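User: Can you fold this complex?
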Amino acid sequence: MIDQTAFFSLSYGLYVIASKDGDRAAGCIANTFQQVTASPLQVSVALHKDNVTTSVIRSSKRFTASCLSREASMELIGTFGFHSSKDLDKFASCIAGSDGAGLPFIAEQACARFSVRVLQEVDLGSHIMFVGEVEEAEKLDAGEPMTYAHYHVVKGGKTPPKASSYIPEAPKAAAPSGETSQPTYAWLCEVCGHMEYADELPDGYVCPVCGVGFKKVEA
Amino acid sequence: MIDQTAFFSLSYGLYVIASKDGDRAAGCIANTFQQVTASPLQVSVALHKDNVTTSVIRSSKRFTASCLSREASMELIGTFGFHSSKDLDKFASCIAGSDGAGLPFIAEQACARFSVRVLQEVDLGSHIMFVGEVEEAEKLDAGEPMTYAHYHVVKGGKTPPKASSYIPEAPKAAAPSGETSQPTYAWLCEVCGHMEYADELPDGYVCPVCGVGFKKVEA
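Assistant: Here's the predicted assembly.
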């Protein structure tokens, strides 16, 4: 009745959603930012309730959305998409700008940025949808926007479990009996969440998704 | 403060949203259909309050979303996007399927289709956002999804005034005095809304956007 591959036909962009309340800045990646009305100019975005960014937006009632360009690096996406703002000052590692209300946005590797005042919060269960009015909108450079399809197909990107469009990976088919043995270890990329299954990885092996490193996680 | 060209960086697909209540079927085009939570599988779509489809969804509490493929014809888009279900049986001119609840969907020129039971209505002013749980999802063929950018750039498509992403066209710059005269007539394509400005159009001239006809609309 539900073929999950049907959801791969839905088209999205890729955005850094950020906010700041006092000294507390936070940002994360979302694909659900969209314009919902033309007059007034209203937009919406759905974010997981457990994201630090969500709680900062709920207190500040404001957020920025930076539309990532195709040239955005996997390191930038890894920083904002696969780490928590609780543990990391995400804006320390990128070129950030500041909007009229003092909120950060991504000033490089982005093709447009928006500043939004929140008017409504819609409870979606695991996520909250913020609806708000656009107070600032700026074209940042001539780069093409990164689409979610480009992120997955061309850049080999992954979707983390707290994303609106997360679909659990199907369990790998078991190898025919006696033909190959299961690897002893799984290796988790701490930046982008990609996993490799192998007994060993060569010295200096880097993550094929984001170009960063691996940690051995389980037997 | 607000550069409207920044909104051109946002990425969307193109969907036929349809519903049926008793014998009353309706459908329209929207770019705002998206997945908003993974568990349960919830989606949302924002539709103008004046659309017939919106009122049929409000009474039936169900809708389908058909994800148009790149091969979708401008005639199909013209029929669903630039006409009212009040005046036209839109499903008479296309290959439609019927879901488990008897609602129509687009069975050709679409790469996936979804059936949704509405759980929430969010009032956005001009539009209503419907949030619901997916009850059916099916991949329809191997075609690539039509993106909103492809519709605009490759197919030369237009956005009608009731769309979430409508941006009024900037008034044309006045011709330098005495150099050229303003055309006497505007010609409106009744299928897709494209306008041409000319004193006359040649016999048999077809709309460059959707390939259909023109009507003289104003002096």
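Residues 52-60 of chain A form the longest helix (9 residues). Chain A touches chain B through 55 residues (CB under 8 Å).
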